[in-house]
Amino acid sequence: MADHAKILAAAVGDIHGEARPGQQAMAESVAEAFDDGVHLLVQAGTGTGKSLGYLAPALARCVGEGERVVIATATLALQAQLAHKDIPTALDAVEEVTGKRPKAAILKGRTNYACLYRSRQGSDLDQDSLLGSEALADAAATGKGDDVSRLGAEVLALREWVEEEAERGGLADRDDAPTHTARGWSQVSIPSRECLGVAACPFGAECFVEASREEARDAQLVVTNHALLAINAMHGGTALPEHSSLIIDEAHELVSRITTAATDELTPSLVERVARRALTWLDDDLATDFLDQADVLREALDESELTRITEASSPLPYAAAQLRDVSRKAVSALGKVTDDNERVQAASAAKEIFDVAERIAKLAEADVVWVTQSDIMGRAAYVAPLNVAGLLRNQVFAETTTVLTSATLSLGGTFEPAAAAVGLRAADRIEQGAEPSDEFAWRGLDVGSPFDYGRQGILYVAKRLPPPGRDGMNEATLAEIAQLIWAAEGRTLGLFASRRAAEQAAEYCRRELPKQTILCQGDAQLSELTRRFTAEPETVLFGTMSLWQGVDVPGETCQLVIIDKIPFPRPDDPLMQARKKAVDDAGGNGFMSVAATHAALLLAQGAGRLIRRSEDRGVVAMLDPRLVTARYGSFLKASLPEFWMTTDGDIAVQALRRLRGQE
C-alpha cells in the first residue's frame, strides 16, 4: 500500500470514520497527478471527505519527495477549518505512518495581519482621554460614549493586543484579534501598496507579515486563499513561497475570486482623500489640480450611463485620462524624497490612483469598464478583466501541477465548462493512463458522493406554474411556496434570485401562515438568522445569494429547499454581459458558455443545501418550469444531484407530510 493510502487510512481511523471509496479514489488520483504532472479536476460530492482526500497525498509528497505543496481555499473560514481540524488530524497520521511530521503554515494577505508601523505611528484617537481601553470599552457598551470614544476604545484594545503579539512573537492575525469593526482594524493594518518595505520600515525587524512569510518558507504544506493566489499570479510569483504542486479547494469559486482580486474601483471620495493626504508635499498649483480631479470625476460619473463604457469619447475615459496625467505629476513630485515615511505612503496611494485611472482611460479590449450607483457610496467606476482564463493558464497551470476540487465542477454532466473558465481547453484533456503532451494536459474525475440522492431527496419542478416575470412573483408561485412550507411545517430554506422576491415571499407567507416563524435576509445579521434557523427546526429562512453556498444545516432543520427561479446572471451585469458577447463574437454560444454555466453552478450549490449527511431527507422545489420546458433545461438538470424527479406538486406535498409523520 502506498504511503498516501496508509496516511489516509490512519487519518480516517483516528477520527473513527469509515473508509469511503470516493475519498480513496480521490487520494489515488491526486497522488497520480503529482507523479505524472497532469492537472486534475476532481468533483467530490458532499460527504466524500475531500479535505483528507487531498491532504493525504499532499503530505505524502512533502515527506517522500521533500517538496512543498500549496493549498488555496476560497474563504478564510475554510483556511481556519483546515488549520484547526483537518491538518492536525492528517499530520498525526503522517507521523504515525512515516515517523516524520511535516510543518504546515497558514498564509494570508497583508491586511489580515496587524502593522506595527500603523499601530504605533497612527493617529491618536485616544489622545484626549485619560481612560484605558477597558474603561473606554465599558463606556461604549453602556452607551455613555459617543462614536469617537467607541472607536477609540476599539483601537486602544487592538493596539494593546498588537503589542502583546509582538512581545510573545505572535503573528497578530486578525482572526485572533479582540472584537472590532472594519474601521477599527484599518487603524492597525495597512494596504499592500502603502507598506514601506522591511528595509525602510522602522519596525521591519518585527514585521508580522514577514514573520508569516518566513513561517511559510519554512513549511512543507502552506494553506492560503484564492485572493493571495491571484496576487501571486499577477505579480510574478512574489506572494507565495516556491512550490511544486498546488491544490485549489472550493474551485467553483476560483474565477469569481480571481476576478474580484483583479478588479479596481475609482470614486471621487477616494481621489479627494488621496489628494488631501498629498497636499503637504505638493506645490499649490499641483495640489489644487489634484483636488479638482475629484470634481471632474464626479461630473463624468454623473453624466455616464449606469452600464458598460466602451467609447473613448465618453465622459468617464476622458476624465480618467485627466486624472492619470495629474496623478502622474503628483507621484513624481512626492517621490523626490524617500526618507519621510508619511510622504512615501502618500506617494504609494497616489500611484494607485494613477494605475487605476490609466487602466480606465485605456479601455483595453482585455478589460471591462462600467459605472454603478449605490444609495450609500453614490456613483463609482469599476474596471475588471474580461476573463481570467489567460492569467490562470499562463501564470498557474504553466508553472505548477494543479489539482482543482469542489463538490460542483462537472456542469451539464461534463468538466469542459469549468475547465475552459480557468484556461484549460477541451483539446488539452487526456484520458486515464495517457501520456501528457504538454504542461496544460488535464484529466477530470467525478468520485461521486456517499449519499443516495435518488432515495434521500426529491426534485420537484413546478411545471404547472407560469415562467417567472420581471414584475415580481405571481400569485400562483406565492401560493405554491406557502403550501410547501405548510406541508414541511417550517424547516425550509428559500433561495431567491433577488432581495425583492425574498421579501415579497416572506410577506405573503407571514400573512398566510401566521403561526410560522418566517425569517428574511435583512431582518437581522445573517449570522444571527442562520443561528436561529439552525436552532429552531420549525423556522423558515428566506434569502439571496449569501445563502446559496454559505449555509450548512444537516438534519430536520432543512427538509425543504425552495428555489424561485433559475439564477441566470442579471441582464444589467456589465461584466457577465461582456463575457457573453465576447464568446458570441468568437463564434461560440455565449448564453451556454457564460449564462447557463453560471446558473448551473449556482443551482448545484443551492440544491446541495438539502442533503448534508446520510440521514437527511427532503425536497428541492424548483418553481421555475423552464428547467423542464426550455432547451437548456437538460444541461442545468445534469448539473444537479441525481434526485428522484417529479413535476407533480401533490407528490412533493405528500412526501413532506410523511416526513412530519402526518400521512
UniProtKB/TrEMBL annotation:
<dbReference type="GO" id="GO:0043139">
    <property type="term" value="F:5'-3' DNA helicase activity"/>
</dbReference>
<dbReference type="GO" id="GO:0006139">
    <property type="term" value="P:nucleobase-containing compound metabolic process"/>
</dbReference>
<keyword id="KW-0378">Hydrolase</keyword>
<feature type="domain" description="Helicase ATP-binding">
    <location>
        <begin position="9"/>
        <end position="309"/>
    </location>
</feature>
<dbReference type="Pfam" id="PF00270">
    <property type="entry name" value="DEAD"/>
</dbReference>
<dbReference type="InterPro" id="IPR006555">
    <property type="entry name" value="ATP-dep_Helicase_C"/>
</dbReference>
<dbReference type="GO" id="GO:0016818">
    <property type="term" value="F:hydrolase activity, acting on acid anhydrides, in phosphorus-containing anhydrides"/>
</dbReference>
<keyword id="KW-0547">Nucleotide-binding</keyword>
<dbReference type="GO" id="GO:0005524">
    <property type="term" value="F:ATP binding"/>
</dbReference>
<protein>
    <recommendedName>
        <fullName>ATP-dependent helicase DinG</fullName>
        <ecNumber>5.6.2.3</ecNumber>
    </recommendedName>
</protein>
<dbReference type="Pfam" id="PF13307">
    <property type="entry name" value="Helicase_C_2"/>
</dbReference>
<dbReference type="GO" id="GO:0003676">
    <property type="term" value="F:nucleic acid binding"/>
</dbReference>
<keyword id="KW-0347">Helicase</keyword>
<dbReference type="InterPro" id="IPR045028">
    <property type="entry name" value="DinG/Rad3-like"/>
</dbReference>
<dbReference type="InterPro" id="IPR027417">
    <property type="entry name" value="P-loop_NTPase"/>
</dbReference>
<dbReference type="InterPro" id="IPR011545">
    <property type="entry name" value="DEAD/DEAH_box_helicase_dom"/>
</dbReference>
<dbReference type="InterPro" id="IPR014013">
    <property type="entry name" value="Helic_SF1/SF2_ATP-bd_DinG/Rad3"/>
</dbReference>
<comment type="similarity">
    <text>Belongs to the helicase family. DinG subfamily.</text>
</comment>
<dbReference type="InterPro" id="IPR014001">
    <property type="entry name" value="Helicase_ATP-bd"/>
</dbReference>
<keyword id="KW-0067">ATP-binding</keyword>
